[in-house]
Amino acid sequence: MSTKSALLTHPNDPPEITPDHLEYSAQSRNQDKDQPVVQSPTEFSSFQAAIVQRAIDGDTIELTNRQRVRLIGINTPESTYKNEVYGKEARNYTQEQLAGRTVWLQKDLSERDRYGRLLRIVWVEQPDNYSENEIRLKMFNAELILKGYAEPSTFPPDVKFSPYFRQFAREARGQKVGLWRFGGKGTTTGDFDFIT
After folding, report:
1. Helix, strand or coil for residue 37?
2. Torsion angle of the four alpha carbons 39, 31, 133, 186, in this order, in degrees rounded to the nearest 10
3. What angle do CA 40, 120, 89 make, to 5 degrees?
4. Closest CA to 90 of 44, 114, 137, 55
5. CB 129, CB 89: distance < 8 Å
6. Distance in angstroms between the alpha carbons of the first and the last residue of the chain
7. Exposed/middle/buried for residue 155 (C-beta within 10 Å: 0-12, 13-18, 19+)
């Protein structure tokens, strides 16, 4: 399958990032880091439809065109080169939920990581807006955190949803869901190892 057929731009996509968006993002990062900032769809790059071939790890998927995608803003316990507690469960959950499924990929600011993987937010449905409810119901990155398979892991400049991710992780940690059953710092490295 060609890249063009595996990654399709949707006709209702919001426009590309503008210089105004970059200025807005820089301002929003200077605000209280735990206060969610709701942005309009015009402040994000286009969605791309893609079909997931398989999960490599809980937070890394491979598309049918062989592109690898690293879900940004989160970190699941390792299950490939080393085995962290709850890593296999996270990988299995991602595999069960996404393999063979069409998803919507959304870039924040960075294109790829140092390993050549696409850095993306993964939506199981395109959102109608970026309300907290839409994020909870349609964004797979958020779902992994809410269900205790991932910790928030913020790497600037890709920080648009970080306040939500930390909020959702506090909820999961408070309920001792998934990896939070093993302690208040989870089972892998994440934001809560560095902030309280």
Report:
1. coil
2. 130
3. 120
4. 55
5. no
6. 46
7. middle
DSSP H stretches of helix in the chain = 3-6, 19-29, 87-98, 132-138, 140-146, 162-174
Structural domains of the chain ordered from first start: 3-193 (2.40.50.90)
pLDDT higher than 70, residue 1 = no
Coil, helix or strand at residue 187: coil
Distance CA 91, CA 40 (A): 32
Question: How is residue 160 written in tokens?
Answer: 């648009």
Q: Quick one: pLDDT band at residue 22, thresholds 50, 70, 90?
A: very low
Summarised one tens digit per residue, pLDDT across range 99-109 is 999 999 999 99
Q: How far apart are CA 102 and CA 114, in angstroms?
A: 26
pLDDT tens digits, residue range 27-78?
333 334 444 444 444 444 589 999 999 999 999 999 999 999 999 999 999 9
pTM, two decimals, is 0.78
Written as one letter, the residue type at 188 is: T
Task: Note the pLDDT of residue 129.
Answer: 92
